[in-house]
């Protein structure tokens, strides 16, 4: 994997994010702290979703927060972000019933079973009244790893075996050949398969569908 030295902030945001096709989220896969993605901006670690907002919309007004429509704190998709006051942030959390909730080990086991069955993280979060980022941390082993509830499994079924897959392995191989050979542009391929250009870019780079050689 190439380094990020010399990349602009916008390029770093793109480099360290991965599209989640089922939700439309651009999930931050770089470093994180306290449930939020973090990005180095001039030697200071800033929240990735706030930096994404500023890159696209300019400075955040004093006293305003950057909130998530998708309720996933790792998402940096500008279309999933909106401005609000701290009070509105709290009201949004209450409205979505995302106040702090203590999970039992049995809850976590059930959550993992739901994910293994192909249930979307957003649907699981609604069922348990917890945030999508909490579900993400459970599924990745960032939380509950020290208990019997965590298992080193790839929770998402790969490729065409995923219940919501738009592509199969042959489609992915053809997309990569078309890009390598210059047969079609990424925008043309994205339109052909009803996917975003960024999703096609990640397929081409191998950041998604890694099992297809």
Question: Which helices and strands, and how do they pair?
Answer:
Blueprint: H1 9-15, E1 17-20, E2 25-28, E3 32-33, E4 36-41, E5 44-47, H2 48-57, E6 64-68, E7 81-85, H3 86-95, H4 105-116, H5 121-128, H6 132-140, H7 169-181, H8 186-193, H9 197-205
Helix pairs in contact: 5-6, 8-9
Folded structure, characterized:
The strands form 3 sheets. Strands 3-4-5 form a 3-stranded antiparallel β-sheet. By secondary structure, it is an alpha+beta fold. The chain is built from 9 helices and 7 strands; from the N terminus they run H-E-E-E-E-E-H-E-E-H-H-H-H-H-H-H. The chain has 3 domains: 87 residues, Homing Intron 3 (I-Ppo) Encoded Endonuclease, Chain A; 67 residues, no CATH class; 40 residues. Helix 8 packs across helix 9. The longest helix has 13 residues.
């Amino acid at each position: 994997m190439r380094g990020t030295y010399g990349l602009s902030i916008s390029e770093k945001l793109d480099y360290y994010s991965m599209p989640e096709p089922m939700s439309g989220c651009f999930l931050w896969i770089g470093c994180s702290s306290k449930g939020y993605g973090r990005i180095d901006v001039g030697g200071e670690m800033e929240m990735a979703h706030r930096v994404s907002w500023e890159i696209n919309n300019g400075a955040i007004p004093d006293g305003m927060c950057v909130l998530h429509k998708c309720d996933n704190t790792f998402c940096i998709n500008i279309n999933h972000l909106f401005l609000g006051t701290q009070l509105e942030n709290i009201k949004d959390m209450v409205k979505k019933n995302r106040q702090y909730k203590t999970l039992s080990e049995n809850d976590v086991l059930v959550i993992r079973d739901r994910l293994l069955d192909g249930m979307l993280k957003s649907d699981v979060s609604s069922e348990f009244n917890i945030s999508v980022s909490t579900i993400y941390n459970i599924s990745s082993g960032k939380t509950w790893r020290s208990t019997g509830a965590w298992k080193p499994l790839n929770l998402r079924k790969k490729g065409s075996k995923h219940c919501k897959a738009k592509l199969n392995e042959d489609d992915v191989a053809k997309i990569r050949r078309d890009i390598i050979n210059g047969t079609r542009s990424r925008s043309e391929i994205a339109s052909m398969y009803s996917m975003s250009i960024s999703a096609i870019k990640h397929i081409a780079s191998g950041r998604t569908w890694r099992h297809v050689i």
